Structure formats: structure tokens, C-alpha cells
Amino acid sequence: MPTQVYRFLRGYTLDPGFSTQLDTMTINDTVYRVRWEDLQDENQKDTPGPVGEYFEVIDIDPPSNCYYAPVNLNAIEVLSQNGLKPSEGNPQFHQQFVYTIAMKTLMHFEQSLGRKLIWAPRAVYENDKFVRNEYVGKIRLYPHAFRAANAYYHRDKKAILFGYFKASLQIQGTNFPGGAVFSCLSPDIIAHEVTHSLLDSIHPRYMEDTNRDVAAFHEGFADIIALLQRFTITDLVVKQLSNAQGSLDHFTVLGELATQLGSALANGRGALRSAIGQRNDDGQWERRKPDATLYQSKAECHERGSVLVATFFDALIKVYNYRTADLFRIATNGTGVLPQGAIHPDLAQRLAEEICHIAEHLLNVAIRALDYCPPVDINYGDYLRALITADIEFAKSDEKIYRVALIDAFRSWGIFPGNVTTLSEESLQWSAPDLSEKQEKAMDALAAFLKTRVRDLNSISNRHEVWQKSQDIQRDLHHLMVNEKSAVLGDEWGDLLDKLGLGTKSIVFKDHTGTVIYKNPKVDTPIEIHKVRPAYRVGNDGLVLEQVIVTITQSITVEVDQGNGQTQPVKFRGGSTIIFDSSKDFKLSYVITKHIGSNARFLAQLAYQLNSTAGQDASFTDSMYGNNTGFENINFAHLHFH
Amino acid sequence: MAKIDVNIKMYRVGELGDCFLIHFTDGTATSSVLIDCGSFRNGGPSVERMKAVAADIKTQQKMAGGGPAPFDVVVGTHQHNDHLSGFVHAKDIFAEIGMKEVWLSWLDDPNDEKATLIAKGQRKLVDKLQKISALLPAMATAGLTNTVGEPSAADHINDVLGFYGLAAATADSSPAVPQDGINNLKSLGKKVSYLSPGQILDLPGLAPGAVKVYVLGPPRDNDLLFDINPGKGESYESKLTAAANVADGLHSALTNFDDGQTLAEEGFFPFDKKFTRSLTDDEFMNSAYKKKENHWKTIDQEWLDQAEQLALYLDTYTNNSSLVLAFELVESKKVLLFVGDAQTGNWLSWKTIQWNNPAISLDSLLQKTVFYKVGHHASHNATLPEYLEKMTNPDLAAMISVDNSDPNITKPNGWKMPAANLYKHLKQQTNFRILRMDGKYEPDCDPKLPEVQKKWGSLFANIDDKAAFVSYTVKG
Known about the structure:
The complex is a heterodimer of chains A (642) and B (476).
Chain A: E1 6-12, H1 22-25, E2 29-35, E3 55-57, E4 60-61, E5 66-68, H2 76-79, H3 91-113, E6 122-126, E7 129-134, E8 139-147, E9 151-154, E10 159-166, E11 180-182, H4 187-202, H5 214-230, H6 234-243, E12 256-257, H7 259-264, E13 273-274, E14 277-279, E15 285-287, H8 294-297, H9 301-331, H10 345-368, H11 380-394, H12 401-412, H13 425-428, H14 437-458, H15 463-489, H16 492-499, E16 508-510, E17 516-519, E18 528-538, E19 544-561, E20 567-581, E21 587-594, H17 599-610, H18 636-639
Parallel strand pairs in A: 3-8, 8-10
Antiparallel strand pairs in A: 1-2, 4-5, 6-7, 9-10, 10-11, 12-13, 14-15, 16-17, 18-19, 19-20, 20-21
Helix pairs in contact in A: 3-4, 3-10, 4-5, 5-9, 5-10, 6-10, 9-10, 9-12, 11-12, 14-15
Chain B: E1 5-11, E2 19-26, E3 29-37, H1 44-61, E4 73-75, H2 81-84, H3 86-89, H4 91-97, E5 99-105, H5 113-140, H6 153-161, H7 177-188, E6 189-195, E7 200-202, E8 211-217, H8 222-226, H9 236-254, E9 276-278, H10 282-285, H11 305-320, E10 324-329, E11 334-338, H12 344-349, H13 362-368, E12 369-373, H14 385-390, E13 397-400, H15 407-410, H16 420-430, E14 434-436, H17 450-456, E15 463-465, E16 469-474
Parallel strand pairs in B: 3-4, 4-5, 5-6, 11-12, 12-13, 13-14
Antiparallel strand pairs in B: 1-2, 1-16, 2-3, 7-8, 8-10, 10-11, 15-16
Helix pairs in contact in B: 1-4, 5-6, 5-9, 5-11, 6-11, 9-11
């Protein structure tokens, strides 16, 4: 009997507002294809809502003091019609739509990463003390959680809350004054928020605001995913490209995020965010030009995030222009100058295929790059190196245009990685440290251990079991390293850890004047194995790439003098992402470190969190109202407040 | 013309609050200036304390043999309880003393069109927040079963609304205390002036030109006035409108929890009522949402966070509307800077001021500053680091009107006053010459300790620490 592979569900490609404009109404509806899941519990009862393996939609509307009946996507009248018809006025469609886009986003991640996604576990506290991590199977999606032009990922509740609000009474853009606007109907917003939760699952430490790129990376990365996903909808791209004469330098809605929400705000002048350009004060649309100063000068995380988005978009345009130059030559008899008016539909189709292909590649690489990022304290430069590494892994023998375009774009936006001497792909690609013979043997032993244990993981379909087994492997690996390998290695043990960004010897930090401000009281700082996950991915040469990703970290707490007679604990972390590669017989292929013993990095974090480098930012950063200051985690609810 | 001495008395108001009595003495002539008089709360003890403060001020104003000398100038910096409540609770005493002139910011000017517009928008928002506050108790009892054992969101919001003296107010109560305070000042002042940045005044009571007063804030530029995080290119009216929209939505939602009051529009917002179901129906009560083990992922009260954010927004705006004055002792080239509770946007606007005399520069005013009244009880965003750096005068001393026994500070996750980094920085800039209202000093700046007195040097002789106030004299 054939089995279902996909569920087809209707939905908006842009925001619902575009359905009531003539030029976009025909492209605003599409049929999404998401992975089939039964949406039934073990008793074969339907789980409306919908409630699936990864997401659970619950439509309680607390401010309205009510809930909305859950949609049953398995009901014959729904299933046979590719889901409910897009409608702003039917909450059940809203439920269907958040589910659709959330699944779509998840699928992109699982395809790119080559493994099942496990949500970040829930930290359980009793009497304010951490007791254990608990497995989280599903993220909750609340389509109508509160009344405001906002949506956010609530980390502690493992939930995404979508807001809705009454549009401003002013007439602006395509806004319907006083009408209801739902953030859960914007595919951009859904993708953005789901990406936050996915990124949190892959890199939980990126919730810690340790340098000014971290929160911005979260924001920028989520926008990149939202944008690129849109470019994979071919119909939409064809139409928009025809309007823009095939050029991405002209205004299109493709580069805008959350247009309807943006123009419904009282202060809205259009989209919430725009990657490629924006309307100036006179209402004229202007293409955003690379500006190498912004990365240095912008501190606010959304503005800073938009620099990353613009950089990425520039790379996309560069590849697109390069790859379509021939098509334009053919279409213009070599002049390169298109006649006035719409371009030929065939040309639009071909251009759209190119751009969709490019977007898919970039989406893939953008997500895969996460596996090549350090486990803590990310900055944009690290991400560029991760992108280059991911792209080389993906397309080793392929033309280099993506790499070149990315490097070029990052350069023109003034983003340079530290610790590299050239911007060539060879220097940017991460590498493995040189190991002594003894150390290499030790790593080989670890690899051999991982090889067998980790392969088991792949044969398990139950995610909870995968999580449980991973925990076991982590514990065993820890034992192997600390209790066995350290004995075998003797003095070289410390040396090896050092190469992994870790430290066993006492760590000493000095301030700018050379005064010692921290001395690790313990001889050994404990190491934590954070993640052991296998990944099986297909490269574009058809070869399967089998890797094991291990992250090991350490943390120390430094009591920093506040100047008011009190000290404040500052948590400082270090460690590395370690990648073993099957194509190299499970040998060590990359070690991506943020060293725990780095005095410079410690002082940089301190300066950022205490902001002692006064004058750089507009205000002192510790918050009057917040929890114990800058060491607070990134709070998405506040980040997104407008 | 002799050199002018200035004595600054910071009154101990017993909780967060500002009250500064300043005497400028030029030989035999004296000019007295009172900047703000208020404390955070309006309960019995607070009222008594404000009366005692006013009585002491009256004593200070007494001339030998005569009655109390009226103030030459009384300044109300901005409409917050902790700066104005004294003018309400001790109105009689202030009436006895008398006020020759009252200086308020242009935002309090009833004839300023822009100010009126802003005031209207602001009043609307305050109004809404009052209504919201009045509805919250109903909300708390509306059977949100998942909130047992957690602090009620209503309490939490009322706590925040305390900023405006609104907590106890109901929708139909009299205007809040700060507004009364401004009204009292307007009626008590023989002459009332509304000041705008760029104005330069001669201090009344002294020879013209002896002390010049520079008005630095509040800015007339909307972007800087209404946003503590300026630079996003959003204009203020629209920000206020946006805030009012959110408040409207919240208010409307809260009526859902009070049967008698539910607004008609709730009948079709956000969805037609045919879609809605009761949270107490069997299906929902038995759903996964209600299961005890899932309690931690419920969201019954998350939506009320908006009220808190609104309240904070309004509060910050009000701080930012502070009247900022720099008093220059012309002959001795010394400046005293009083910033009220001005936030970043206000500070940033100073450099955009067009003075009618090109010789005036902000940098030189800052460089000449020998006394700084630290903004907003030394919270993190009420002193601009860039300008603090420019206060390089070797005689710089600062006063912080903070009382660290205030419940707002002592409560869990309380307000961070003084903010650590700012405090550290202030110590550097002033060489540890900092006076606090509460007298709670760390060893490195406790003026009772000899090594700290060394840091004050000859300036130490100018400190007078009494029960009612701590005073400091700037010698001309």
C-alpha cells in the first residue's frame, strides 16, 4: 500500500493583505507541501489543533477570555480540499497556517542538518535550584496569545506566542484602519520565530548575551531563514521578477519582511524590516548600499541583525547576477539593456528558477553552517568562516562562486573574522589542530568510540529515545575522556585540552592594568559534553557526508568588582565544536574553539556586559528594572517590543 | 562684584525623591532657588516627611527678625510624584514662604500648541492606564485557575503604575498628585515662565549677569523627547499613538473579565463570536492545556506584560521631559548642572541647541561643571557617558538623591540605583567626591573617612551633613 509522504495545505505566500491587492492577489495563495504525519495519537484518535510530533497548536486566546475550536486536518472535508481556505476571519485557518509554516521551516532544518531535531531541553528548577534537564517533544504554538504587534519565542515555556492587534486608525500603505492584524498569518513572522526556537535547540548558549553580535545573530539569522524560504516559492518569484524587470535592484516585496504588520503599526512606513532597501523620508524606495561602517556603529540588535541579512542578500544578488548574465545577454541580443515593460514570461521563468536554486543552496548552507559554529560567544566573523566551511563540505569540487560571493559581501559590509590573515577560502575554512602522535591516538580512540555508539542513534526513530541515548553517550564520552584518556596521556592531556579550547590548569585573568582579577581556585575546571550528534548529509556531488558533531564546554564564574563595594558574578564560557568526518575515517576534521583561557575574550565580554568602555554606547547597559544585569539571557519578548 | 558662593541642600526625603534648596550669595545679596520637592509615595508617613521638609525649608528661608523670604525661583522639573508631591502635601507652608518666580518646562505651557497636543496624548494614555488599573482586580478574580501560588499580575502592574501615583487611583478620582503639584506651582508663583532649550536667563535676586542660567532640555525635537533609544527614525506623535493603541487594546480586553462592562466591539474582535468557546467548557477543562504536568507551558497571563511595558514607556517619557538647567557663576567660570531625571534622548539633544551667542558651547559648559546633580537617582540611562567624560573639572563633585532603603530598590529584582557602572564612572570623574541622600557610602567614598577626605582636599570643608539634609557649598 502506498504511504502518504506529504500533506498539502493551502496558505498565504506573503501576508494576507496582499490578497486584496490586484497585483499580488494571484500570487498570494499557494499550496504548501509539508511532511506527512498522522496527527493521531496511539489510539488512532485524531489530535486536532493540530498536534504533531514537533509542534502542538493550542488556540487559547487569554485576552478574549476564550479559546477557539481546534481544526482537524484529517477531517475528510479538510483533507480533500488541501486544508482550509486561507481566511483572516477563521481562527481554524490560523491554526492550520502556523502549523504549515512551522513544519516547512523545520523541514528545511532537518534536510540541511541531516538529522532529526531535538528541542532544547527544559531546565527544571526546584526552589530556585536547577535539578535536571527534561526532554521536550513538542514546541507549543499559540496563534492568539496576546494583543500586540509582536510575536516571540518563550524559552522557558517552550512555546511561541503570536500576538494580534487592532490596526492603527491612520490610513497608510494597504492598512485597513481599525482592522484586526494577526502576526500568526505572516509566514515571515512564523518562520522567524520558529527559527529562534530551532537555533536555540542547536546552540542553547547563543541565548547568552556575551558580545554584541549574539542577539543580533539570532535576529539576523531568523530573518535570513524567513527571507530565503520565500524565495523557494517559484510562482511568487516569477511574478515579482517580471515586475522588477528581472533585477533585484528594483523594489520588490521579496526583500521585505512582515509588510502587513509593519504598515498596520501606528508608526509604520511599510514593512517591519527590509533587507535590500527601504523607503526614504520622501517615500522613495532606495536600494540599500553596502556600508562598511554599520557593523562597527550599530549596536541595537535588530539594526545589527539587519546588517547580517543585507550581507547575505548581497551575496544572493551577486550570485544571481553572475549566473544570469548570460540569460540577459541572450534576451537582449548582447546589449544587456532590456526594453521597457515586462520581461518575457520565459525569461522570467528561467530567472526565477535560477534564483530559487540559489536561494535553496544558500538556505541549506546557512543552516548547515550552524554545525560549524563555536558553541558559545558567536560573532559574525565566526559565522562567515562557518559558511565557507559548510559550503566547501557541501560542494567540494564545485565552482566557488558562492564562497566568493559570500566573502565579497561580508567584506563590503565591513565584517572581518578575527585570527585570519587573508580572506581566501583556505584561510577561512576551519581546520583541525596539529596533534602529537600520542594525542592523535587518544582522539582516534574517541573517534572509534563515537563511531559505533553514534551509528546506533541513527537507527532510532523515536526522538525521545534519541535524546535519552545521546545523554548516555555524552556521559560515557565524558567518562572516557576524563577518567581514561587523561591517565593514558599524562602530561599531554592538558596539552590536548588546550587545543580543544579547554583548560585544566588554573586559569588566570588580568585586567588592562595587569592586576589579577581571577584565579581559578580549582586545579581542574570540569568539562561538560554538550552535544554528540551524528549528521548524514548529501553533498551536491551526490556523496553522503557522515559527520559526528561534539561540543565540549567549560564555564567559570568570576566575581567582578562593581565599584560600589559589591561584586557581581560574571559567567564566562569556553570550549569547542569538534567534528569527526567519516570520509576521513572518522578522523578529526575540525576543531572550532572559543578558548576558556582567553584573557582578551574575557575582557571583551566584561567590557561589553559591564560596558566599562564608556562613550561607545549611548547609555550604561545594566538595566534598572531587569534581573541581575547584562548576564541575563536574551529576552525575546522585550526584544520584539515596538 | 564679589565672587558668588553657592550652597546646595539636598533634603533627605526618606525614600526616592528630589528636593534641592540652593542659595546663591553675592556679598549681601542672596538668591534662593528650590528645585523640586517630592518623594515617591503619598501615604501618611510620606506626607508627614514632606511637611517636615517644607517646614525646615521655611526655617532656612527665614530672615533675621522678619518672616520667611520668598523663593526667588522655584523649579518643577517634570511631572513625577517624587519631584512634586511636596507642593501638594505641604502646599500651605509653601504658600507662606511665597514664590517670586516659577520656572517650568515648555511642556507645561498651556499656550504652547505642541505641548498641548503632547499633553493631550499623554493624558489619554494615563487615563487609559488608570482605567486598566481599575479593571485589574476583576481580572484577578476571573478564575484563571493556573495562577494559584503565583503573584497576581494585577499586583504587579499596580506596582508599576505607582510611578505616577496612580496605583490607588480609580477612573473617577481626582487628577494624580504630580499634576496637582504643577497646578499649585502655577498658582503660587507670582510670575510663571515656561522655558525652552536655548534660552539664557539672568538669575533673579542677584545683579544681572552675575549668574546665567542656560536651559538645555527638554528638547523640542520629538525624536529625542519621546524615545530613550533615539535614532530609529520614529516620530513621537506616532509613538504616543502606538502606545495609546496598545492601551486601547488592553483596556478593551480587560472588559472581557467584567460581565457588566464588556465593550460591544469585543463581540466581533478578533473573531466573530460563533468561533469562540468558553474556557470552562468540558472539552477545554479536559484538554492537554489544563493538565497539571503541562502547567509550566500555559500562557494565561503573558498578555498582561503589555500593561507593564506601557507603564514603563510612559514613565521613561516623563523622566525624559525634565527641565535641565545649567547655572553659570560668570566671574568664577563655574557651572552647576541640574538635570532632573533626564534620559538619554534629552541629553543627546543638548548639542543640537542653537544658542544666540556663538561663543557658548556645550563642551565648555560641561568642562566648567563643578557640581552635578546626578540624573534619576543615578539610574543607568539618565547620565550620558559621553558627557560625563567631558565633565573634566578637577573640582567636580556630585550629589545622588538616592535612598537605598526605598522598597523599589530593596525588593527582589529591585531597581538598580545607583547603577553600578555609572557609579564607578562617577567616582572616577569626581575623584570619589560623591554625596548621597541616604548617607550609605562604600569605604572608597565615605566622607567620614580620612582617606576620602583627602580626596576632597580643601573642598571637604564645604560639606555640612545635617539630619534634614546634606549640603555642599561651591565657593566662587
